[in-house]
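Re: that backbone. Tokens:
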């Protein structure tokens, strides 16, 4: 009996990883699966063009703004508890959206869905970080990162299949069985964890400041091309974002229970991982967004046909991401992150030479290189960031990393969209090439940042021994915080 219990305890963390991956897949899928359903939603609900835009933006905006708050609440009140609340909110809002009878219901449901996602996303990575010892985190986070990238890549394909053969509502109803599975497995396998070094006091002033700052920034990025970059509304939002983000660190320095420990950024590895997270999402989401438009509007593919063309990227992620996770445990994250971003840069540089007659054969090498590059970056990036901080702070650290990814993706679409706004097919194709060239340059800069900032090894985090009796364990992150000259 004791051996059986020990075996079950030994396998529990892998069941925990499975539950976190189920939930993560659901969250990330909703970043891309909705795009192909928008025409059907418009026909069924009579939604306006603005309403369709906010069907996407309401989710992205709330999700991105509340990520750090969700991570911090998990550290304070318990990561499993906050995760379960997030799963419940996400599932309930998905059902609400599926039964929507109007544009307003749909947009409101998407905003609530963003709240659930913001509670879930940081918890998935912090729970994994707490469940696995440092020498196994790379493999576990490799699976986590692979699922994340897979969900983003497979979204257009799955959405196209469901919309064409079932209904647009089905893309939301499929979240219900996934959420149920995640809830059951989490209750069965995942122990509770929280940051034992802090009180349960909530930093409401800090939450307000960062929510206002990030909310204004994200809204400005989302609407800049529609309203005009120099319009009074965008300039006002930019000013509000500056004020909110400037006030936030001042508030944090004066509170006894700050949301973010800014000493995290004294670690060059943590800083580098967040820069890389921003840049890889900048390049990846912009490519998915605009090449989907290119394949449908220029090459004449249907939504499903366009989604299927991204399968080479998806397959590369499936194959390479777990390998990258294991390699990160052995050789450290820096060479993998640098190589991955270099491949992303080459992919975008190649695709920048497309024409109106290029076809899928021309795009295929770029899609393959992009998939390999994404897979080489995601797992080592996440492992580097989480090994660079005390695992008691895993929730807020995960929230910061996720926020970097979300803001990077939003900015990538907004910035490239500013270059890809010309009218007519010829103008669109030419400006798309210019935008992809900019993305390639940004990715190349990310490769330099990865090599310069990220520690070449996992340092002393490979083991996590228990402290001697009567002593307090030194934070495992301290060993990973390399000196400036590293």
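Recovered sequence:
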């Amino acid at each position: 009996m004791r051996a059986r219990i020990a075996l079950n305890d030994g396998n529990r963390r892998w069941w925990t990883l499975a539950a976190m991956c189920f939930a993560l897949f659901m969250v990330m899928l909703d970043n891309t699966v909705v795009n192909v359903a928008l025409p059907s939603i418009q026909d069924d609900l009579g939604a306006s063009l603005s309403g369709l835009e906010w069907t996407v933006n309401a989710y992205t905006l709330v999700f991105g703004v509340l990520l750090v708050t969700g991570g911090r609440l998990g550290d304070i009140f318990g990561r499993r508890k906050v995760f379960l609340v997030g799963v419940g909110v996400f599932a309930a809002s998905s059902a609400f959206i599926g039964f929507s009878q109007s544009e307003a219901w749909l947009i409101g449901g998407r905003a609530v869905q963003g709240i659930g996602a913001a509670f879930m996303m940081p918890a998935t990575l912090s729970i994994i970080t707490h469940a696995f010892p440092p020498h196994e985190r790379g493999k576990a986070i490799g699976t986590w990162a692979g699922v994340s990238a897979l969900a983003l890549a497979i979204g257009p394909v799955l959405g196209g299949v469901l919309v064409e053969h079932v209904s647009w509502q089905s893309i939301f109803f499929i979240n219900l069985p996934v959420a149920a599975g995640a809830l059951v497995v989490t209750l069965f396998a995942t122990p509770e964890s929280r940051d034992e070094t802090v009180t349960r006091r909530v930093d409401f002033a800090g939450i307000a400041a960062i929510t206002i700052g990030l909310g204004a920034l994200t809204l400005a990025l989302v609407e800049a091309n529609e309203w005009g970059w120099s319009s009074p509304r965008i300039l006002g939002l930019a000013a509000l974002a500056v004020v909110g983000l400037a006030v936030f660190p001042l508030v944090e320095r004066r509170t006894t229970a700050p949301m973010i420990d800014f000493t995290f950024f004294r670690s060059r590895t943590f800083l580098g991982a967040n820069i890389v997270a921003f840049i890889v999402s900048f390049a990846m989401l912009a490519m998915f967004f605009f090449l989907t438009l290119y394949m449908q509007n220029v090459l004449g593919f249907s939504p499903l046909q366009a989604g299927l063309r991204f399968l080479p990227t998806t397959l590369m992620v499936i194959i390479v991401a777990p390998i990258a996770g294991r390699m990160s445990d052995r050789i450290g994250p820096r060479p993998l992150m640098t190589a991955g971003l270099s491949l992303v840069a080459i992919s975008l540089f190649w695709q920048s030479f497309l024409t109106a007659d290029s076809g899928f054969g021309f795009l295929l090498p770029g899609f393959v290189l992009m998939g390999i590059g994404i897979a080489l970056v995601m797992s080592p990036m996440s492992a580097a960031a989480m090994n660079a901080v005390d695992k008691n702070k895993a929730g807020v650290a995960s929230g910061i990393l996720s926020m970097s990814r979300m803001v990077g993706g939003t900015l990538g679409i907004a910035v490239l969209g500013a270059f890809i706004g010309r009218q007519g097919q010829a103008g669109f194709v030419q400006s798309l090439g210019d935008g992809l060239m900019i993305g390639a340059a940004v990715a190349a800069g990310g490769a330099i940042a990865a090599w310069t900032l990220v520690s070449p090894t996992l340092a002393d985090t490979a083991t996590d021994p228990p402290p001697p009796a009567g002593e307090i364990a030194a934070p495992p992150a301290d060993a990973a915080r390399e000196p400036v000259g590293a």
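Residues 1-8, 459-486 have pLDDT under 50 and may be disordered. DSSP finds 18 helices and no strands in the chain.
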